[in-house]
Design a protein that fits this description.
The longest helix has 18 residues. Helices cover about 10% and strands about 30% of the residues. The chain is mainly β.
Amino acid sequence: MTFATWNPWREMEALRREIERAFEQYAPDGDDPQNRRFMPRDRFARSYPYMNVSEDKDHVYVEALAPGVDPDSLEITIVRDTLRVAGEKQPIRMEVKPEAYHRNERLAGKFIRAITLPVEVDGDKVSADYANGVLLIKLPKAEAAKPKQIEVKIA
């Protein structure tokens, strides 16, 4: 039988990450320098690319929705528990002047998105694939971040 001990510092760290995520999404002026976006300059514009982050025992998985992004422009960097994805989305028709549009919702340009991962990962073993407009990033957890089973000896 194993018992999990409550660690208030772990709970506080999880709360800190949640608060940071909330501030990443809603920068006061829509121009957070660490989270540049080319979406409309709306106070509540969401960051680009849209991401899902999940994990299992050994890995963290990031799925980034990035249709129309030039795969050669993608740059993925890892520093401790921070993932940074940068790239460029080219316009479909470059010959059309901005004043000729009646509606232009498919924006283009360079983007940078940085997110805090739930745990530290092994940056040397990260893999990424881009297919059908979806960037899939597989990040192996650092050994120190993996849960350890402690055997309890009975005296």
